[in-house]
Specification:
Elements (H helix, E strand, L loop, with lengths): L1 H16 L7 E8 L7 H16 L7 E6 L7 E7 L5 H18 L3 E8 L2 E6 L15 E5 L7 H20 L12 E7 L5 E8 L5 H14 L9 E5 L2 E6 L43 H29 L26 H7 L8 E5 L2 E7 L5 E7 L7 H12 L9 E7 L2 E7 L6 H5 L10 H21 L3 E3 L8 E3 L5 E3 L6 E3 L5 E3 L12 H6 L1 E3 H17 L15 H10 L17 H14 L10 H9 L21 E2 L10 E2 L14
Antiparallel strand pairs: 1-4, 2-3, 3-5, 4-5, 6-9, 7-8, 8-10, 9-10, 11-12, 12-13, 13-15, 14-15, 16-19, 17-18, 20-21, 22-23
Helix pairs in contact: 1-6, 2-3, 4-5, 10-12, 10-15, 12-14
């Protein structure tokens, strides 16, 4: 009976506790050779390298690096790192899966890095070991839980303190105990009487202390994008941090040694005392009934514990969101019915599209300030009737744009489609567009330095969301001062996605024969060749930053001090070590010297002619928010002078017009699977 009962317990426990889940893929980054022909010798060396990493994954407590090849130009360099709490078997399984996977995901790449939930594998055609501690642009990913905390203030305080402690501990390079790898730290903090916060920080073990600290602080800053999420992780090329509201790691610091199955202790010698449960005794030991009575409650308790534990793990295992392209949420708008307004409602709200309500006009149509019957203020954009876009395409694209929900993006509330009327309904932004204040000699004093720095940071956050964190990977293609709206607290909101493009999957760029956008803000590779990518938006952002710092328009810059446009003027002042001379004189009483210089440097970095030399928006945001991050020195920006015979465009909720390449009435085009 005892044996039968224990077998039943094992049948319940084994499926949950013995069967290990396969390693979980997180993200990867590949870079291909600049030539069309792959280096077959390097590829062979890379395969040897990856095989060696998989075979030696458990060496040095979960960290291994290796170099394959003899000729320096064909050599492959790589390393693998397991999360510090992994047992050798799990580490081996994770690295093996990662090395197999990266071969498929980066078949011809000269560089590749792949993150699994509990390990990382990287290879390169350069000896990156010697560059440890040098910032590597673009090698960072952040993932987050789709659920938010209830007490955000308390949570952020506890999270900040916990992460600061872990950064210090991991940077010191000390292992938790004799079985763990160095530069690995775990932490637990109490959020409430019923809830704890669990966190982890880890660096590549041979990273110097200062470099480890710097990398971890960059990673922690990346988590600030979603600081109210219940969980998140930041994956950088040489370090990682993670936090959750459940224990996602093994408690190796205090775990007892593995339990051993032992026989019940024999009865003490000469024990003649009566058994607590009457029954037949065998050789003076405990009766069989006694064994059953003692074992049964314990076994049942163990079974119930494991069932509950398994349920909790299965429920929370995938809480940390997958890469941004796979995030889901029931709260998202997915149907036409949720978005459609009646034409009569819009007509009444605008008082029959009265000119008195008009707040913007241009090639795409008119914009009206309106009030719904429930008192909500809205901005109504009535598209011009010459649009060639079909009703179905218009509806689908509205649904796509409505899914872009971020505090630094203007929110699209819905649309109206009736006969030849196509109308977009946005949230109303009271301060309208940035250019109305920034370039107005009388109003620009409203924007002191703290407000301008806040606006720059808000635009950067909005672009990071568009480029990396939203369900759709969006290239805006028309970022400019008139498309930045300011709410009542002067928070920046990116608007007007009429020229945006969606890219997906492994795609990082695109090309087009229809150049749309605004000269002066357009990257040279796009203006001249139709090539666009997230770095095109980075270029526009750089121009915008220089405008905000200087208070001068780039496309109407008057020659002064030997400069012919805003970029050349900024470069001249930077080269002459006079970046503060570039600053708007109205900021003289409010500016922060270091922040102004930092913004000029970042602006010039963003407008580099070499696309690869421009930082990603994620790195730009890190440079803006973490003053401990070093910034590269910029090179001279490009200067080009396109024709000015162009058509007129419009910015949402703004009466200002801007020179555009073409009037493109389509909202978001070029949808690819992601």
């Amino acid at each position: 009976m005892v044996v039968l009962f224990m077998l039943c317990c094992l049948l319940i426990i084994v499926p949950c506790s013995v069967e290990a889940a396969p390693p979980e893929y997180m993200y990867h980054i590949c870079r291909n050779s600049s030539t069309n022909t792959p280096n077959t010798i390097f590829q062979a060396n890379r395969n040897v390298l990856l095989s060696t990493l998989a075979s030696n994954a458990t060496q040095n407590k979960g960290y291994y690096n290796y170099t394959a090849g003899r000729n320096s130009k064909d050599m492959a360099y790589g390393n693998s790192l397991c999360q510090g709490d992994l047992v050798p078997k799990d580490c081996q399984q994770c690295v093996t899966a990662a090395t197999d996977d990266i071969k498929n995901k980066c078949p011809n790449g000269i560089f590749g890095i792949i993150w699994y939930a509990e390990c990382m594998v990287r290879y390169d055609n350069k000896a990156f070991f010697t560059l440890f501690g040098v910032e590597e642009e673009g090698l960072a990913v952040r993932l987050w839980n789709t659920q938010n905390v209830t007490d955000e203030a308390r949570f952020q305080q506890v999270l900040g303190n916990t992460m600061n402690n872990l950064v210090t501990k991991a940077s010191e390079g000390k292992p938790l105990n004799d079985q763990t790898i160095k530069s690995f730290a775990l932490g637990t903090a109490k959020l409430s009487s019923l809830q704890n916060l669990y966190a982890l920080a880890q660096c590549v073990p041979d990273l110097p202390e200062a470099a480890c600290s710097r990398c971890l602080r960059v990673a922690v800053n990346l988590l600030q994008y979603h600081s109210n999420s219940q969980g998140g992780r930041a994956l950088v090329s040489t370090c990682t941090v993670r936090y959750e509201l459940y224990p996602f790691y093994r408690n190796i610091a205090t775990a007892p040694p593995p339990s051993q199955v032992t026989s019940p202790p024999p009865a003490p010698p000469h024990s003649e005392g009566p058994s607590s449960i009457t029954g037949h005794k065998e050789n003076g030991g405990i009766s069989s009934k006694t064994v059953v009575v003692i074992v049964a409650p314990i076994s049942v308790a163990v079974v119930l514990f494991f069932i509950g534990y398994c349920y909790l793990i299965l429920k929370t295992k995938n809480n940390t969101g997958p890469p941004p392209q796979e995030e889901t949420g029931d709260e998202e708008i997915t149907t036409i019915e949720n978005l459609q307004f009646d034409f009569s409602t819009i007509e009444a709200a605008t008082n029959g599209f009265s000119p008195d309500n008009k707040i913007g006009a241009g090639g795409f149509g008119d914009v009206f300030k309106s009030v719904l019957t429930n008192g909500q203020q809205i901005a109504v954009k009535r598209l011009s009737k010459g649009s060639g876009q079909g009703a179905k395409e218009f509806q689908n694209e509205v649904v796509l744009v409505a899914k872009l929900q971020h505090r630094n993006l203007v929110r699209l509330l819905g649309f109206c489609l009736q006969a030849d009327e196509k109308i977009l309904v946005y949230e109303y932004i009271p301060n309208r567009s940035l250019d109305n204040i920034l370039f107005d000699p009388e109003r620009q004093r409203q924007l002191d330095w703290s407000k301008r720095y806040k606006i720059i940071g808000g635009i950067a956050r909005g672009l990071v969301y568009l480029h990396e964190d939203s369900r759709l990977r969006i290239i805006h293609r028309d970022l400019k001062a008139s498309n930045i709206l300011l709410d009542q607290d002067m928070n920046a909101k990116i608007s007007d996605f009429g020229m945006a493009r969606i890219i997906g999957g492994e795609q990082t760029h695109g090309d087009t024969s229809r150049i749309v956008g605004t000269y002066g803000y357009m990257a040279p590779e796009y203006a001249m060749h139709g090539l666009f990518s997230s770095k095109s938006d980075v270029f526009s952002f750089g121009v915008l930053v220089l405008e905000i710092v200087s208070g001068k328009k780039n496309n109407s810059f008057h020659q002064s001090d030997g400069a012919e446009d805003l970029l050349s003027y900024a470069w001249k002042q930077w080269k002459n070590s006079n970046p503060l001379e570039f600053m708007d004189p109205t900021l003289a009483d409010s500016y922060s010297r270091n922040e102004v210089i930092r913004c000029v440097q970042i602006g010039l970095l963003c407008v580099q002619e070499d696309v690869e030399a421009r930082p990603s928006m994620a790195l730009v945001l890190t440079m803006l928010t973490s003053h401990s991050v070093s910034i590269a020195l910029p090179k001279e920006p490009p200067f080009y002078y396109p024709s000015k015979s162009r058509s007129e465009g419009i910015s949402d909720q703004s009466g200002s017009k801007s020179t555009s390449v073409s009037v493109d009435e389509s909202s978001i085009t070029g949808v690819y699977a992601r």
